[in-house]
Amino acid sequence: MKRSSPTASGYQLGKSTGLCAETGRSLEPGTPCVAALCEPLEGEQEGLALGMVRYDYSVEAWDAGARPERLFSWWRSSIPEPGGARRLLVDDDALMDLFDRLGEEDDPRRRAFRWVLGLILVRKRLFRLDGTISTDEGNVFHLRRKGSDPERPPIELLDPKIGEDDARAIADELGEIMADDGVSE
User: How do residues 46-56 score in pLDDT, each as one tens digit?
Assistant: First the structure.
């Protein structure tokens, strides 16, 4: 599977290749597709954003049951027009699902990725900050989903104590994985 070239931070980013991972056929601009984030094969994880590999599928292949091994998360989208404005390829539900799935992870990179995604979801007003507590592990932010039952326990988000540059790099990686500005060559 083709990936884009490394960035200054040393990570390879999961931009769309414009090809169906199942059939190898070209996914033309404007056509619906399914983007999938997967666990990498052994030895592939070094230098990958979030330690994940992105594959794109035609809707027909996906609906026929094509699924990559090691599937972590997926979302429906469409292939952007070349040279078109950069746009987010996932909806808020897909972002929330990814946030929830990352909550089950112990990998420090994925915890940092979840931290940045959580901050983005607060900024998008899908979460609201309900307070912080200090623990032996560090600061834990309590978040509530928009419209959630106030009697339910809050979502706990541990501050991974990453620097501003690392947070910015992770946010850029999230943007590369979840958005596209045209099919890569």
Answer: 555 556 778 89
